[in-house]
Amino acid sequence: MRLLTGLASALLLSGCAGIVPKSADPVPPSSGGEAFTSAMMAGVKEGPFVSSLSISQTDAEAALRSFIESCPTLLRREDKSGLTQPSDWQKACAAAPRNPGTADTFFSAYFETAIVGSGQAFATGYFEPEIAGCRTRKPGCEVPVYALPGDLIRQWPADMAQSERTGRPPLGRINENGVFVPYFERSEIDAGALEGRGLAFAWAKDPVEMFFLQIQGSGRLALDDGGVMRIGYAGQNGRGYTGIGGVMRERGLLGDGPGQYAGSMQGIMQYIRENPQDGKELMHLNKSWIFFTELTGDGPLGSLGIPVRRESSVAVDPRFVPYGAPVFLDLDRNIADGLWIAQDTGGAIKGPNRFDTFWGAGEDARTIAGGMSGRGQALILLPRGTVKRLNSQ
């Protein structure tokens, strides 16, 4: 998730790389599809008629607005899931702005449902945090918000054999000896590795809040002058993500027993504040560092480069769900039931039927996202005729 996304709970409480808050039971259930690398490998079958789904008019209207914003991407971007081609979306995207009939009948008219793999879904939640900050450094506001450094580059290490060079080169830097090495990790950056380079364009007041905003991947700074600065993901240092909640669980610090802390973002923050030295060492186990940029337009932006919307946008693994596609969730957390549009992704959002729902900003968003851990069924809405075509190939 460009918001990194989602995902505090899943990321904090798992060992995955990537993003918001989690419930006491944040570990995704096994779907049996961990070895699959695409929707086609997992298997695709036709689901129930769209008209049979419980979609409220309000839900459909919000989803339609987000779908319209996604159409430019749908019409030009390669679908990594292998389910669709850009041309498949032309009719729906052409009709969407005209919205023939009501929004719910629009989805019935242009889409069919598909079940990927078992269809058994696991959903978490993420939100856009707001923390206290300032544009210039001052006492009590000294946690740097760094822009992407110019010396962060991708390059193959000189000692890596050609046969091992697959995919993209790793991120790193050229050190003082002219050797490509991994980029500075969290503990080194906290110790001042990037100070004095003009990279800090804002400052936060609370290092703990800033740590969690980095996990989210975007957020807002409530400035001391009364303004608000929205910051978004610009890049990452190339170091692996460690979910500190998972470490705390292994150490017996999370749970319902005496002296244990709640298995949620709030519980993890409480532990760090009450145990500052151990908490700092715990945060340093997560070597990943997120760099930001100031956002001046609508936002926050998902991985498609378009704004994600509360209760409409969902982060997905694009190998299993086409970016921009509608998704219908029916979970044991009823608040997350309904239509969503796939507009984001995240390091912890991996595999078929894994989702991270977006809840906007504010305290209610933090609370809902922090407790979101829903299981149920997922249906992917595809242009009519897609499933039959796929299964005839």
UniProtKB/TrEMBL annotation:
- Signal peptide positions are 1-19
First-tier enzyme category under EC: lyase
Q: Which domain of life is it from?
A: Bacteria
Q: Which residues form the Lytic transglycosylase MltA domain?
A: 130-293
Q: Name one GO cellular component term.
A: outer membrane
Q: Which InterPro entries match?
A: 3D_dom, MltA, MltA_B, RlpA-like_sf
Q: Name one GO biological process term.
A: cell wall organization
Does the keyword field hold Signal? yes
- Cite the Gene3D superfamilies for this sequence: Barwin-like endoglucanases, RlpA-like domain
Q: What is its EC number?
A: 4.2.2.n1
User: Which reaction is this enzyme known to catalyze?
Assistant: Exolytic cleavage of the (1->4)-beta-glycosidic linkage between N-acetylmuramic acid (MurNAc) and N-acetylglucosamine (GlcNAc) residues in peptidoglycan, from either the reducing or the non-reducing ends of the peptidoglycan chains, with concomitant formation of a 1,6-anhydrobond in the MurNAc residue
Return the protein name. Answer: peptidoglycan lytic exotransglycosylase
Q: Name one GO molecular function term.
A: hydrolase activity, hydrolyzing O-glycosyl compounds
Q: Which UniProt keywords apply?
A: Cell wall biogenesis/degradation, Lyase, Signal
